[in-house]
# Entry
Amino acid sequence: MSDDKRRGVLFDVDGTLVDTTYLHTVSWWEALRQADHRVPMARIHRSIGMGSDKLLDHLLGAERDRDADGRLRDAHDALYGEYWERLAPLPGARELLRACAERGLRVVLATSAAEHEVTALRAALDVDDVIDSVTSSADAQESKPAPDILVAALDQSGLTAERVVFVGDSVWDVAAAGKLDIPCIGLTCGGTGRAELAGAGAVAVYDDPAALLDALPESAIGTLG
# Structure
């Protein structure tokens, strides 16, 4: 049940708060290479932010034989898992989450990462004391750019679309937020350019969490407080 008196910020995590976008890119590239799919890293990078099902559709075609998809996902997960102990938050990520909490805003991690990956991401951030709720891929029937994970984040946190801002790093994040009329702040630290995020509908674009923190009072988050 939503609490109309509370406001909050939904955060994507991969590439937005934790520096993982290129780790996912390399892991998918190697997983695909092992299965004899030669896909340029630039194309893979542009797909990061989608769920693995849509990413593979996007890269390999929706009409393909999907029998090998599970092996591709397992290979990606094994390769990406080698980085878990070295995951690092992006500049200002921890401080941004704490600043939002200090403003009385609910801090929600709206990620579609698998549950085991979420554990590693939360460990890298190390700010569980200010996080209100966290989603995972198990909470969404359909992955981004569908808005399912944001709907789940709202339901779990008791917030409404009218009283939140979403922060993400990919055009898929912006698209998902747009389907619920949630303002989305874009960050370029995941490797997507300022013009593209703005063109997708981001209400503002900053370099990274630290830059958003510096501009917090006048940002879309600042107006929530």
Q: What stands out?
A: The radius of gyration is 17 Å. The domain at 8-20+87-218 is CATH 3.40.50.1000 (Rossmann fold). The chain has two domains: 8-20+87-218, 21-82.
